[in-house]
Amino acid sequence: MDAKAIESVAKHRATPRIRGYFGIGIENVKTDTNVGSLWRSAQILGASFMFTIGHRYRRQASDTTHASRHVPLYHYDDFSQFRAHQPTGTRLIGVELVPNAVTLERFVHPSQAVYLLGAEDYGMSKDAIAQCDKIIQLPGPFCLNVAVAGAIVMYDRSYKQRL
Fold it and tell me: Which pTM does this prediction carry?
């Protein structure tokens, strides 16, 4: 390959082929810091929106990048209220360690997706797990910090859409 061909391939790979949109949220999140961390990652990794379900955390002040100016945060009192307002055409993708979960490396992200993470201490509710279109899990035998797990899922989506 000559220099021009290499530059063309590099430019093509650097140009994202993003299709669709996605949102990410946490059910019954325990700490405000995780909301802020996930929010910053959502802004950087291209989320269209973020959401929380339940009232376990206080409004957070850890949004140092002002993600709130770029990525809206929606709050739902419970899972049924969230489902009633889930964007039309989106697939609900849970992130949880359960026996029937698809590993992240094998998962093909849908064009329109909503990713749901569970609480730091309890995981996702049984109701949420039952209503997900797919459940994915990250590598490893233990749970990661919820904000870190969400960032990995969003990075994986972004990376795979550039291939």
Answer: 0.85
